Amino acid sequence: MADHTFWQYIRLKVIVTFIRLINYIFTRPHFTPSPTCIRKLIRIPSRDLNRFINAWIYYPNNYTDSQKLPLVINWHGAPEYPLPGALEDAEDTFRWVEGQRIFDLDRVALSGFSSGGNLALVASSELRREFKMNIRAVYAFYPGVDFSIPPEEKKVPEPIRPLPVSFQHLLTEAYVPRVEDRKSPKASPMYAEAISFPEHVMLVACSGDIFTPEIEVFGKKLERAGRDVEVVRIQGAHGCDKTTNPTMFRAEARDFAYSKVLQSLQYIM
């Protein structure tokens, strides 16, 4: 894996910093947790000197010490930490989790949204056999699974607010600078061996999302390998589970997709 050239990094850093600022200004009000939400911010040691991975531990109501807890991590993004930076954060998190008693290592599931969905799939296939924890399932919401497909070719019949092609190129260049790395299983789950994934895989695909065609192909690949795969298809939607964009948010679609995950977890766990 290779990093960016100096001027390439400077250009990407300036653009991405501006985008992050705009995103923070317009979306931060939507991130206030519910009054019933009980969570704790922690810092997980990273392999990099003097760097930590921020994470939230969520506590259910009426929590007791015998209960095991969910963990949400904020991995370090690109262009500061291109491939394999996010995967290394996942690996460091797995290593930390295995040393904690508050997690049930026999009943582990991974999940993520968009780029987080990509990371959940990559971590579940690339790291699963390296740790003692039993990753039983992975739930990926509208993930990109194939960086090798040019953005110009990522199309759906009725797109809903698709990312501009130039912006897609920017994201790909920031995270996977070298074209030859875009078919690496560490970047694109499509190129991982199908049997390397957990037994249970759920993929949520929105009909208005340009990632949907590759998600469908990926799901069929896993099915042929004998994985228990469910592709949850949501019609007339794109990013419909997030309140950050009122024009795209659909509560009934969100509840439908989330209920599918809950039902699966109750069955698998």
Automatic annotation (TrEMBL):
Domain Alpha/beta hydrolase fold-3: 72-237
Source organism, top-level taxon: Eukaryota
UniProt keyword annotations, A-Z: Hydrolase
Molecular function GO labels: hydrolase activity
Database matches in Pfam families: Abhydrolase_3
Record keyword Acetylation present: no
Protein name: Alpha/beta hydrolase fold-3 domain-containing protein
Organism whose genome encodes this protein: Fusarium oxysporum f. sp. raphani 54005
